[in-house]
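Page 42, continued from yesterday. The earlier attempt failed because a stray header line got pasted into the input along with the sequence. Redoing it now with the clean sequence only.
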Amino acid sequence: MNSEEQQARIELRAWQLKMQRSPSFLNNFARRVQVRLNAFLPERVHQAITAAIRQMVRGVLFGSQHTTGKLLANATFAQRETAVRSQIRNYRTMATAEGAVTGAGGFLLGLADFPLLLGIKLKLLFDVAAAYGYDVHDYTERLYVLYVFQLAFSSQHTRNATYHRLATWDAYRLTLPLNPEEFDWRTFQQEYRDYIDLAKMAQLLPFVGAAVGAVANYKLIAQLGHTAQNCYRMRYFTARQLE
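This time it went through. C-alpha cells are written below.
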C-alpha cells in the first residue's frame, strides 16, 4: 500500500466511525421537532412533494448519465483521487456562484436554486463515479449514487441504515428491485428537505440572500464531495481485500 492509499485509508476510517455514530441528544431532539413539523403538512402535500422530487431527480439522473465524462480506465488510485478532488473544487465553485446569483435575485429566483443545486449535486456524483471507474449507465450504479446522496443529506438515524447498505453494497445490490419506482422516494425527499431547510431558508431573505446562498452551497457541495469520495474509497479497499 503506497502513501496515497495509506492516507486515504486513515481518512476513510475516521469517516466510517462518524457514519456509524449513534444519534446524539441533539440529533434526537431535532428529529422529534422535524417529525412534528412534518405532521402539520397534509398527506396530499407530502405526496405532491415526493412526486415532484422523484420526477426532478429522475430527469437529472437520465440527463447526467449522458453527459458524464469518460471512465478513467487503467488509472492508479492516486490519479483517481486527484481527479475527484479537482471535480469537487470545480463543482463547489460553480455551486457557490449559483447560490450567490439566485440568493441576490429575491424570493422567486431563490426558489430556482433548489432544482439548479440538485442538478449540480447529482452531476458531481456521476463524475465522481466515473473517476473511480464505475459506469453510471448501469442501473445499480445509479441507485448507488442516490444512496450516496441520501447518506450525505440525512439525519443520523437514516444515515446509519444508509451507510450499512453502502458498506455491504455487493450483497445489497442483489436485493435491489428491478423497478426504480420501488426506491424509497418518500424518505429520500423528506430527509433531504429537512436537512437543507434551515441552511437555505435564509437565502430567500433580502440583503443577505446572496451571502447565505453562496456559503450554504459551498458547504453542501463540500459535504457531498467528502461523502462520495469516502463511499468510493470504501468500495476500492473492499475490492482490494477480496483480491
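Notes: Residues 209-242 form the longest helix (34 residues).
Reminder to self: strip header lines before submitting.
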